[in-house]
Design goal:
Helices cover about 35% and strands about 25% of the residues. It is an alpha+beta fold and about 230 residues long. It folds into two domains: about 70 residues, Helix Hairpins; about 140 residues, Immunoglobulin-like, CATH 2.60.40.420. The strands form three sheets. A five-stranded mixed beta sheet has the order 3-2-1-5-8, with no helix packed on it. A three-stranded mixed beta sheet has the order 4-10-9. Belongs to the cytochrome c oxidase subunit 2 family.
Length: about 230
């Protein structure tokens, strides 16, 4: 959950998000080193009146400042490609959920069950209880078991939407008449919040996503209760 004045990302709740955080820190450190070097060179050039004639025409220096950026780009590209393939990897999901975007709410269908589905609307401010978050709480949460591969099939009924949960490292566009898929594994129990990340109309800001990760035993009890109510 993000908090006011937060500068970094939310705490990771999935292995992919942990990898993304590590890559962010890796790339940011390279940016800091490059910025420091450039700043030092600028200050040195401004503050000194001396000129080194060997720097003015030096093939060795030209070779270094040609090869060094290429090495830096490789150091950034290889981890990036690795994470990109990890995010697309979907191996034997234990549970498949279909998320459908509407104006302006989400509907979820647990396709491994015969009749388990519901609509998820934002809770109005006047209905919130202590500890719930304005504009982020939904009347029905998408409940998933922890430490299990989850596949989410994402589409939309009307206009473009985007199913996004930052803590899980998940963001996928919901496109009408097209089925996209994304996978994640929740590494710890908790409630993780997201919002539609594609401008989809007047109430775009009012269709939150709430994912609740629980132990497998609790998930089975929840699914049994939902099927009984259905």
């Amino acid at each position: 959950m993000a908090h006011p004045s937060q500068l970094g990302f939310q705490d990771a709740a999935s292995p992919v998000m942990e990898e993304l955080l590590h890559f962010h820190d890796h790339a940011l450190m390279i940016v800091f080193l490059i910025s420091t070097l450039v700043l030092y060179i600028i200050v040195a050039m401004i503050s000194t009146k001396l000129t080194n004639k060997y720097i003015l025409d030096s093939q060795e220096i030209e070779i270094i400042w040609t090869i060094l950026p290429a090495i830096i780009l490789i150091l950034i590209a290889l981890p990036s490609l690795r994470i990109l393939y990890l995010m697309d990897e979907i191996n034997d999901p234990h549970l498949t959920i279909k998320a459908m975007g509407h104006q302006w709410y989400w509907s979820y269908e647990y396709t491994d069950y015969e009749d388990l589905g519901f609509d998820s609307y934002m809770l109005p401010t006047q209905d919130l209880t202590t500890g719930q978050f304005r504009l982020l709480e939904a009347d029905h949460r998408m409940v998933v078991p922890i430490e299990s591969p989850i596949r989410v099939l994402i589409s939309a009924e009307d206009v473009l939407h985007s199913w996004t949960v930052p803590s899980l490292g998940v963001k996928m566009d919901a496109v009408p008449r097209r089925l996209n898929q994304v996978a994640f594994i929740s590494s710890r129990p908790g409630v993780f919040y997201g919002q539609c990340s594609e401008i989809c109309g007047a109430n775009h800001s009012f269709m939150p996503i709430v994912v609740e990760a629980v132990p497998l035993e609790h998930f089975e009890n929840w699914s049994s209760l939902m099927l009984e109510d259905a």
